[in-house]
Design a protein that fits this description.
The chain has 411 residues and is α/β, with parallel strands linked by helices. The protein is 35% helix and 23% strand. It contains 15 helices and 21 strands. Bound molecules: cytidine-5'-monophosphate. Cytidine-5'-monophosphate binds next to helix 13 and strand 16.
Length: 411
């Protein structure tokens, strides 16, 4: 990130508060200036000492601290930031925000600010799904507050799962930078370009309750969309069913099946570049059953009549009309990664293939990191393991260079 930004992080009192330490480190690493406010409850989960050591700043806690009021005060804290991030946002903090309370430093700053506020909730799924929280979130959205997450998953409480986890730090960083981006995006290297990204799995119905799918989380595709938007592109993200937050500043088209994904891609053309990161199901049932298929009394399982899905990457890469200047495909393999990927570059007609090993032992499928090989007409580059957000940034950086080179060559 070239221009450092001032982020005011409000840390609420939840078990996920520990993730803020990592968040601060990542934001600082990327050159941002971070100031933190901790609510009283947050002190039970992280100490001001550790937060202060990472921000390199004093940590603000009290509304009526005389020193603070003279020195900086809640109005200046609110105004001095480019973006306010509330993470983790508890149900109580969200309720107090929705009610316009200002009886502690965190809520007073939130009431006094005219800056973008990004809220990352974290709470028990029942609290998140409670009608009171739903009402408060709806109200805050109407008031222009942005939300990221919560993510689905296991809770700290044993045996509890559902929506309520704080989204992971890499996603938080991407969303924070996207929220900060509008000021810089118009002049980024992809300004004025249209980028299509496909992401996630597709679900192919068997009957009204069952479907064929795969384990793709959509993380890499969503990061690519966010990274392209961050450097100025107009991005259309066409995604299968995922439980990820929508990247900020991106036009999202939600689809379910491969056929719908192909139609959505065609409808989004023309584009300067298309990145096909979706893990499209290779097959679908020829005719999904209208009713739920029942178990037969004889114990004979039903036969599924599968047919091949359209190959979206191949269709677009080989189309004579409206082919994007740069078409990038992915190759997720568990064996002979490079050999398969090289074949795919030719057979699909892509300009680049991003190949990775998705054997369960690598932890890449659904994980936050990726180790990729970039296969282009010029050869193969193997990149070291890094976060999916960093992979996305580097691919987009390279793609922007390539598009600029193509434009210069054409002139
Ligand atoms: O053939 P395979 O599925 O391994 O190819 C992977 C690449 O092709 C990915 O970029 C994926 O998004 C794309 N693909 C597609 N439509 C399909 C199958 C794969 O766009 N039906």
């Amino acid at each position: 990130m070239s221009s450092a930004k001032r982020i005011l992080l409000i840390i609420g009192g939840g078990i996920a508060a520990y993730k803020c330490l990592e968040l601060i480190r990542r934001l600082k690493e990327r050159g941002h200036h971070v100031r933190a406010i901790m609510t009283k409850a947050a002190h039970h989960f992280v100490t001001p000492l550790s937060v202060g050591a990472l921000t390199n700043e004093r940590v603000f806690t009290d509304l009526f601290d005389l020193d603070d009021e003279h020195d900086i005060g809640h109005i200046r804290l609110a105004r001095d930031a480019d973006l306010i991030v509330v993470a983790p946002a508890t149900a109580d903090l969200i309720a107090r925000m929705a009610g316009g309370h200002a009886d502690d430093l965190a809520t007073a700053v939130l009431l006094a600010t005219d800056k973008t506020v990004l809220v990352a909730p974290a709470m028990n799924p029942r609290m998140w799904l409670n009608p009171a929280t739903r009402r408060n979130v709806t109200q805050l959205r109407l008031d222009g507050i942005r939300f990221i997450g919560p993510a689905d998953g296991e809770m700290a409480e044993r045996g509890e799962a559902g929506p309520g986890r704080l989204v992971e730090v890499p996603e938080l960083v991407t969303t924070i930078e996207a929220a900060l981006a509008p000021a810089t995006a118009k002049c980024g290297p992809l300004a004025g370009r249209h980028v299509i990204v496909t992401s996630g799995p597709t679900h192919e119905p068997i009957d009204p309750v069952r479907y064929l799918a795969n384990r793709s989380s959509g993380k890499q595709g969503h990061e690519l969309a966010a990274a392209a938007a961050h450097v100025g592109a107009r991005v259309t993200l066409i995604t299968g069913p995922v439980s990820l937050p929508e990247p900020a500043g991106v036009h999202v088209v939600r689809v379910v099946t491969a056929s719908e994904m192909l139609e959505a891609v065609k409808a989004s053309l023309p584009a300067d570049m298309a990145v096909f990161a979706a893990a499209v199901a290779d097959w679908r049932t020829a005719k999904p059953n209208a009713e739920k298929i029942k178990k037969s009394t004889s114990g004979t399982p039903p036969m599924l009549n599968l047919i091949e899905n359209p190959d979206i990457l191949k269709t677009i890469a080989q189309s004579a009309k409206d082919r994007p200047k740069l078409v990038i495909g992915f190759a997720a393999e568990t064996l002979d990664v490079l050999a398969h990927a090289k074949k795919k570059l030719k057979s699909k007609g892509a300009d680049w293939i991003v190949a990775n090993d998705v054997s369960p032992a690598t932890g890449i499928m659904g994980g936050d990191n990726n180790a990729i090989h970039l296969i282009t007409g010029a050869g193969i580059e193997s990149w070291p393991e890094m976060s999916k957000a960093d992979v996305a940034r580097k691919i987009i950086e390279r793609a922007a260079e390539q598009l600029t080179a193509k434009r210069t060559a054409a002139e």
